[in-house]
Amino acid sequence: MSHQQEDDADYMANEYEMEAIDDDMDDEFHGRDIDASDSDADEYDYMNNKMQDTSAAEARRGRDIQGIPWERLSITREKYRQTRLEQYKNYENVPQSGEASEKDCKTTNKEASYYDFRRNSRSVKSTILHFQLRNLVWATSKHDVYLMSHFSVIHWSSLTCSKTEVLNVSGHVAPCEKHPGSLLEGFTQTQVSTLTVKDKLLVAGGFQGELICKYLDRPGVCFCSRTTYDDNAITNAVEIYNTASGALHFIASNNDSGVRDFDMEKFQLSKHFRFPWPVNHASLSPDGKLIAIVGDNPDGLLVDSRNAKIVSPLCGHGDFSFASAWHPDGLTFATGNQDKTCRVWDIRNLSKSVVALKGNLGAIRSIRYTSDGRYMAMAEPADFVHVFDVKGGYEQEQEIDFFGEISGLSFSPDTESLFVGVWDRTYGSLLEFGRRHNYTYLDTII
């Protein structure tokens, strides 16, 4: 991936800002007088955000799910959507890769509905550090989600509509526990590029190769490590998993072409694999035997998790890949690419992908399966999340349509909730959706 960070925020801002269509909005949507105090501003922001949150009931009555007052703007939602589709510039490392991939893509029915809108929370400001890395939202239950907001890791409870700061990396962060291999001096002003949370463990990866680990049920940080001191050190992705014996580990994918496995029982690096190109994402199969590796090469790799021996190349994408995820059955997995496609692979025949699924605007930067394997969601850089019916052979999808850069998406472990982080200076928020259930057995008693 690109390791030039300086223009990332500007790239996203130039590509997309809702402020560009907000000229007709009242001053109340853009701030207060310059003489207002910080405390007044905080109180105002809190009240303003609370008022601008959108509930499911309000959405059913016709309110825009993001609270955008289209009736007061000089452009309709439909017209602005069309403009976005025509003008959005997909970032590519291989020119015209998106156009070249279209011929392989499956035509799907987009009329399905699997997850219903529940709430848009404007008081939760989800942010992005690097425009190519979008794994910054993680749900640990149907009511609990963790996300990055500037220099803070925030816990949001959708049950109480309240947020709590879990970790602040704007200053000095150092481990309060002593473990072999831990960097006891810690870090200062860590820029978090990726995040993961599972089994009460939070792991944040930084732009300079930092790794910060914190158990949510313990005070302070438990472990700090720097993967490398190379200039090209950014941590692109982290994934937590349990070994066959139940030990807690995590995998870190880095721009120095390395994939590292850390044992969190011993707080030590246990494996270090090197590849020919920067690794943007690595995901372990459910049985722990295989790792899907994607990065700065159109072809991915499926490797043996014990020794990184190549099982098979993954040929079909036209650009660099930034996402991967395994289906719970361990037989299929998906990869997301800057050629605007997500490809699904079957380990029983890796000569070509099983299916190629197309986005609308740009790269597929995040992929998640539900824990029951019924649905797969893929996120574009902005505006669209697609939820596919896996059991139905990816023939049908729900297309979730909104406006804003996507910082990440996450299903809850019980599959009941889907959270989507939206980064925008005006309409940044956390979108929440709930799984739709058809209780047909109730019809028999009516």
TrEMBL record:
It comes from the Eukaryota. It holds the Pfam family WD40. PROSITE patterns: WD_REPEATS_2, WD_REPEATS_REGION. WD repeats lie at residues 314-355. Keywords: WD repeat. Residues 25-44 are annotated as: Disordered. InterPro entries: WD40/YVTN_repeat-like_dom_sf, WD40_repeat_dom_sf, WD40_rpt. Signal peptide: none annotated. PANTHER family: WD REPEAT PROTEIN (AFU_ORTHOLOGUE AFUA_8G05640)-RELATED, WD-40 REPEAT FAMILY PROTEIN. This is Uncharacterized WD repeat-containing protein C2A9.03. It comes from Nicotiana tabacum (Common tobacco). The gene is LOC107794162.
